[in-house]
Amino acid sequence: MIHATRVRISAMLVATALVLAACGGTPAKSSESAVSASPTTTTTGTPAPMTKVTFLMDFLVSGWHAPAYVGVDQGFFAKQGLDVTVQPGQGSVDGATKVAANAAQFAQIDSTSALNAIAKGGNLLLIGVIDQTYPGGLCYLSERKTINALSDVVGLRVGSAEGDAYVVPLPGLLTKAGLDPKGYKHVVMTPANYTAALFADQIDAYACSRATFWPGAAAAAKAGLTLKMFRYADAGFNAIGHALVVNGELAKKDPDLVQRFVNAWAYANVWSWANPKDAMDDFLKLNPTIDPTVANETFLDREKSYAADGGFFTFDKAKVAATVEFVNAAYSAHLNPEDVYTNEFVDTLPEAERQGHLPN
Question: Which of 294, 295, 328 is nearest to 65 (CA)?
Fold first, then answer.
């Protein structure tokens, strides 16, 4: 189990990095010192206290989480006065529950799981898009099964944790396709057992995503097998994928803190895409037990789902409405699209960042 990573940012800043950061450019890497940001100061000249924030990932740490760790290691969060603890997650449902309870202030989780939590009374607000294309689906072994359509799922044994984000939409998708929403057997298990159960023929498929596919594919290859993925997006699921969510009460009480977090979060993402090798170096330095090859493949592949029509971070009104409509129909919810998200924080970002580029 990968433990939570907590990195304290140094109060010193490499001079060159400061100049570049002031211009909105890419901070230089240094072999002698990690790039860090100067904390704000009080009128007496003493450093102002950093605001402690917990940032929860959707699942166990993988390469696609690299931007969060880059934000810490490069000092982007610290520059905004934030002392951020990045924690691995236990699934999007668990993440939604923790943010709603203010056990974590921010999380990147599956949008349908977040909407389900809101429908059940969870105080959450979606404030930024991570995946403009839904990244989830089912992983299976091509030597044993073929899944090209939702109809191929009927009769299969599908493994997942209870409430796994990538099995949550499945009953609704089957219903929408005119199929029995209970037409598959749900085998509840822990994520750590997914691939072993698949290889042992205890299940026919397991819930997965673009990020979790690559570790499974590597394990399958070592066993002489071929892992494939059926993506819900390829079956017409037009939902937003992962989103950045915040505790709703925090967004009302301290919008400045939320804005500062979004500023650093967005910049860390764009910087990571512009500097993939350096981003992976930062990630692996803070997560040395992760397989470098798998981490890199996961990070590079995930970029395919980040943008929509060249845009990043911003919620498309029609797509939010479609995602909410799906959740309402599939799970008897009564959500209003206007109540579950806001673009007010990402709208303040530089236009270049919202197009996936570093500001000049």
Answer: 295
Give the residue ranges of DSSP H helices in 200-234. 210-222
Paired tokens of 235: 């079956």
pLDDT tens for 164-198 read 878 888 988 998 899 999 999 999 999 889 999 99
- pLDDT tens-place string over residues 263-293: 999 999 999 999 999 999 999 999 999 999 9
What is the model's pTM? Answer: 0.79
By CB atoms closer than 10 A (0-12, 13-18, 19+), residue 15 is exposed
List phi, psi (to 5°) of 56.
-95, 130
Tokens encoding 32? 């002698």
Structure tokens at 341: 């998200």
Question: How many other C-beta atoms lie within 10 A of the C-beta of residue 41?
Answer: 11
Phi and psi dihedrals of 357, rounded to 5?
A: -125, 155
